[in-house]
Amino acid sequence: MARRGCSLALIFIIMWLLIKAKIDECRRGDVTVTPSRVILLGSTVNISCTLKPRQGCLNASRHNKLILYKFDRRINFHHGHSLSSQVTGLPLGTTLFVCKLACINSDEVQICGAEILVGVAPEQPHNVSCIQNGEQGTVACTWDRGRDTHLYTEYTLQLSGPKNLTWQKQCKDHYCDYLDFGINLTPESPESNFTARVTAVNSLGSSSSFPSTFTFLDIVRPLPPWDIRINFQKASVSRCTVYWRDEGLVMLNRLRYRPSNSRLWNVVNVTKAKGRHDLLDLKPFTEYEFQISSKLHLCKGSWSDWSESLRAQTPEEEPTGMLDVWYMKRHIDYSRQQISLFWKNLSISEARGKILHYEVTLQELTRGKAVTQNITGHTSWSIVIPRTGSWTVAVSAANSKGSSLPTHINITNLCGAGLLAPLQVSANSEGKDGIRVTWQPPRKAPSAVQEYVVEWRELHPTGDTQVPLNWLRSAPYNVSALISENVKPYVCYEIHVYALSGYQGGCSSTLGNSKHEAPLSGPHINAITEEKGSVLISWNSIPVQEQMGCLLQYRIYWKERDSNSQPQFCEIPYRVSQNSHPINSLQPQVTYVLWMTALTAAGESSQGNEREICLQGEDTAALGQAPDRLAHS
């Protein structure tokens, strides 16, 4: 009881303070607004401020200066006990007016104030739409309010059904455009009509929407399907069934699915599926995303939201397609040769699973029996075989379900038929990082060509056989090919073009690069020797990373020591294996300074190291007597 008494006392004190604040706020006078403190946009109002008796200035009423403020801006004033002002053009919303009294030699004193609310009557609500989420959900409706009234507006939603049933709900918020009745419509009479209507009311007027009529089937939106599963019978992609669970009244489903790396969906509509559907067009060894939505009626109602995604990978299938196989031969001695086989990976659609290994079969045709069978996990394989006999190789790829069809390659001398050699082979830069290779058909037997193979690999002066080999195939009517894969800028490539015809082949070669610059350094002279009146210059090759493309020429410069004359030079066409060259034009008993440069199509390198030489005219001449001097760029 004591607590209850304290609570009542606290409430009484708070109410007394509020009443006192209201009395104190306007104890000196009143502000009246006509015709009303709530007006229609564009209306005019009269605002009057009147002092209560004995609340003016102490001296005389003529000293009373009443001032009317609109917010903080003075809009009117008058000497006396009252002031009246007509106000127009008020904006939408709330405007505060305050009346103050100013006496001589004193601060302004607030008399009273008034808030004027400017708004509009509610527009007719439209687009009334109702929905029930799930068979066990509740009915909720939405509508468009129209323009903002800027006033307190009450919305009433009324739902009428069969047997004179009526439900009603209100919201007292002028931003209201949604109400949930909290009732559940049942499917007992799925075709029974229900009518929803929205009425908006404020102090300036009211308006009602047109009635929205619907049935149970129209507004019940099924819940998304759940518990989605997928089954591949006998681990076969061609026998795939998708399962799911639905609400009991669902008649129509739509299933969408796509590979996980695709943005495009395949969509299937299914009637009376009863929670299962067979898919026949899935690709093997592919991760798919599946989603399902539901609908209660073929023509009425709306689709449910899409279900949560199910991701699943389809089973493997036997590989299709055939490997692209190429090879190279290297003579070891008079009776043996090494065969190196290379092949490209199958595409994802061809592999149809994870490739576990490759099967290689080598056969000598004259004996007619398999000589060697090998299984490897790599994309290359080498073997040493006799140089005699006719050899063929078959290579296939295997996954867990089987092997691809074998690719057969006849081992032949790829450059043995001179009449099949392509003519005028050249290579030029094209595009960002491409090399365009062009050629002319063999002059003697162009119609015999079955296909061209363009092969390229990085050029290494040491002839390193471990450098990766690349190739592409071209139809017999083509006379050019674009190399765009596995090409680096500022790297020189050795390019071969093979013309194949049955068991014969002819080839031509060239060098090419996608981008080039002048070499970063010149060759390093490592030795100078005199041989019968001439000088043999020997040098170290420029490091590959400093060549900056394909080298075209070397230049050997020489001039007399301490001479200001221009140096002489000779040009040597670049050959991969060359690292020495003779000079015959030096005079005996004269000291010369020699150095070298290298050239690409983009320009000349800086000079390499300098060496001095003085020919003695004898085999025991003193050469290179001065130490090397660093070249200046």
UniProtKB/TrEMBL annotation:
Would the keyword Transmembrane helix be found if you checked this record's keyword annotation? yes
Residues in Fibronectin type-III domain copies? 224-317, 421-518, 519-618
Q: How is this protein situated with respect to the membrane?
A: Single-pass type I membrane protein
GO terms under cellular component: plasma membrane
Q: Where is the signal peptide?
A: 1-21
Listed SUPFAM superfamilies: Fibronectin type III
Q: Where in the cell is it found?
A: Membrane
One Pfam family from the record: Lep_receptor_Ig
The source's domain of life comes to Eukaryota
Q: Does the keyword Glycosyltransferase apply?
A: no
Q: Where is it predominantly found?
A: membrane
Q: Which GO terms describe its molecular function?
A: cytokine receptor activity
Q: Could you identify this protein by its name?
A: Interleukin-12 receptor subunit beta-2
Q: Which organism is it from?
A: Saimiri boliviensis boliviensis
